Amino acid sequence: MLPDRAAIPTDLELAMPHKPQIEHALQRCTSQELRRLLTIACETAFAAGQLIKDRFHQPHDIRMKGTINLVTETDLASEALILETLAQKTPAVPIMAEESTQSMGVRSQPLYWVVDPLDGTTNFAHGVPHFAVSIALLENGRPKVGAIYHPMLDELYCASIGGGAWLNDRRATVTQTNELINGLVATGFPYDIDQTLPKVIRQLERVLPVVRDIRRAGAAALDLAYVACGRLDGFYEINLQPWDTAAGWLLVEEAGGQLSNFNGGPYSPFVPQILATNGRLHAALLQRLQ
Known about the structure:
Elements: H1 19-27, H2 32-55, E1 62-64, E2 70-72, H3 73-89, E3 95-97, E4 111-119, H4 121-125, E5 132-139, E6 142-150, E7 155-160, E8 165-167, E9 170-172, E10 184-187, H5 193-207, E11 213-215, H6 220-228, E12 234-238, H7 242-254, E13 258-260, E14 273-277, H8 282-289
Parallel strand pairs: 3-4, 10-11, 10-12
Antiparallel strand pairs: 1-2, 4-5, 5-6, 6-7, 7-8, 8-9, 12-14, 13-14
Helix pairs in contact: 1-2, 2-3, 6-7
């Protein structure tokens, strides 16, 4: 159940002073419509991120969606704020959101928002300051704009199709690493780890010995953003959901990187496998994951 709307900050209460952070990205948009949509995505992510940051040090109401999959009152409040804002700004565009269980049906629509109101909920609930808001707009199954906001670092990663990827006011580009042994790779563990543990261990056994190291930070959206801005050389995971990857997908591509499933086929957020790399390491990592 969503929180009472009276408890959700309004647009007036959440001033948006971050325009300079996105001005370069907006200038590179290839159309006025993309500029408008990217502005909406970024400002909405800023507002939700501020709400999350304000609640970070408060006690949390934690509920379980599965054995180890949890949700907090802040996930719900963030999603309520995002849904209300997007409904006001783009009333004709439906929304797929993590905590709105019936929203997967919008996949059949030609245009829809994909929202993760708090990616990295387990980190948030345990006081680990590594989490983000992720918002993307998909058209015919591909992202047009995407925004990922890390409120604790005040870092916005955003992209529009054809307009490049950006970290605040700096252009984001993938690394030039071309040997696996020099690569820093990230991964994550699925919520059904009790069923997928053998597969996860096999993947680690194949990848870990041939790379510099592996990171497991607990927020897939940020893992993809880090590939896009050159902090990671690659990222792989299984059993993610569309809201985990939709915005990061566009970021990696616009930063010059490559994505696929584990068979090397085109990536889709509705396929439960993702490999994202700087491009130079893609074939070698793909071989390991196969």
